[in-house]
Amino acid sequence: MSGMDLVIRARRAVRATGEQACAVGVRDGRIVAIEPYDADLVTTADVRLRDDEVLLPGLVDSHVHVNDPGRTEWEGFTTATKAAAAGGVTTIIDMPLNSIPPTCDVPALALKRKTAETQAYVDVGFWGGAIPDNVPELRPLDEAGVFGFKCFLLHSGVDEFPPLDQPELEDAMAEISGFDGLLIVHAEDAHRIDHAPPPNGSSYAAFLDSRPRAAENIAVAEVIQLARRSGCRVHILHVSSADVLQLITTARNDGVRITAETCPHYLTFAAEDIPDGATQYKCCPPIREAGNRELLWEGLRDGAIDLIVSDHSPSTIDLKRLDTGDFGTAWGGIASLQLGLSAVWTEARRRGFTLVDVARWMSTAPATQTRLTSKGRIDTGYDADFCVLAPDESFVVDANTLHHKNAITPYDGRTLDGIVRGTWLRGEPVDIDGGPRGHLLTRGERR
Ligand SMILES: [Zn+2]
Fold first, then answer.
1. How far is the CA of 82 from the centre of ligand 1 (A)?
2. How many Å apart are CA 54 and CA 35, to the nearest integer?
3. What separation in Å is there between the alpha carbon of 323 and the centre of ligand 1?
4. Ligand 1 mean position, distance from CA 310 (Å)
5. In the prediction, which pLDDT does 215 show?
6. What is the Å distance from ligand 1's center to 268 Cα?
7. What averages of pLDDT result for each successive group of 10 residues across the chain (447 residues)?
8. What pLDDT shows up at residue 200?
9. Looking at residue 444, what is its pLDDT?
10. pLDDT, position 1
């Protein structure tokens, strides 16, 4: 085999089949060889990881709100993609809402792409939005390369991204299934939440009561029913209520094309431990009880939940209303893009999981689900996107040192295991003090 641009030798590389010692050969940004650790390979750069480091496929975080353009004081592509790189994430897929305009037609997508183009430190793809009256925009957005369509079944938090009612949801599914697209759903039922007690000041318990599990359970059941009828591929975003896992498993066994994700915060924190007034923990659906959290881990173990993504949804600090601690008025969203891998690894290892599991949930499965055919594996033919992790090192989170724009996160002060020592994008280390090298991704494109 002729010369390579790079060889990375790792005592521990995480591959789909398990961990192995190997030498990974890279040419033109692609993995072209997996050889024994000491293989004699001709290369211009021969990198040996330290004995305490593990080579993982770069993470794929398919649930990130970058908010740029329009709410760039909340987050932007430069800060978000630097945070991603620092956390071992080499691909993000940007959510269609909280930016202005939301990504609900092709001109809005073009504006997003133009905004991201000069700022991306990692690869960036885009979701489109399904809102009332934009059914005619869905196919053109699909053809323009969005990875699928997000919808809400209740108020999204921003007025310019309204929810779908049941007939509108059916219309969207009919259209999307016509081109074998993917509908991703924020599944909480508006009616059930309208009938729950409202959040009451700084009480976390009252906030939790205002977003009951039943609201998620009802909404997921509705999505399943309509997916069964339409044949549409659907994905349940940020599963928080463990009650839905049985519904999802049963539907999948019946042939419904359904996948599900959860997020690091639902797997880390527990409602019982959240102090009143601590609105940095506010997200929707909410963080629930410890017993529920353990059932989510069981859902990962038995495959009911396919993947873990951040749902990084930051705002400015003032909108989190730490001054009043009012869960009713605070922005609902957790900032964690840089911390997802360490947060999940910290909790996963305690429960007997391995880095092979973590890489499957946070890299391979999100890549498969979004049909990113060149991401998510250390294997020949895949992009040479890597995360170098020191899994036995730990650190204390300091929100002020994170790269996302506003220095607030519920992980602040928490000790996490697993330090990201380096991130490689298409065969080159990501230098967050240098220039951006990320590409904009188009669904289905084989680059
Ligand atoms: Zn979200």
1. 19
2. 16
3. 24
4. 8
5. 97
6. 18
7. 90 96 98 97 96 98 96 95 98 96 97 97 98 97 98 93 96 97 97 93 97 97 98 98 98 98 98 97 97 98 98 92 93 95 98 98 97 97 98 97 93 98 98 96 78
8. 85
9. 78
10. 57
* Rounded distance from Cα 175 to ligand 1 centre (Å): 23
Rounded distance between C-alpha atoms, residue 235 and residue 256, angstroms: 11
Which pTM was predicted?
Answer: 0.97
**Ligand 1 midpoint to CA 176 (Å):** 20
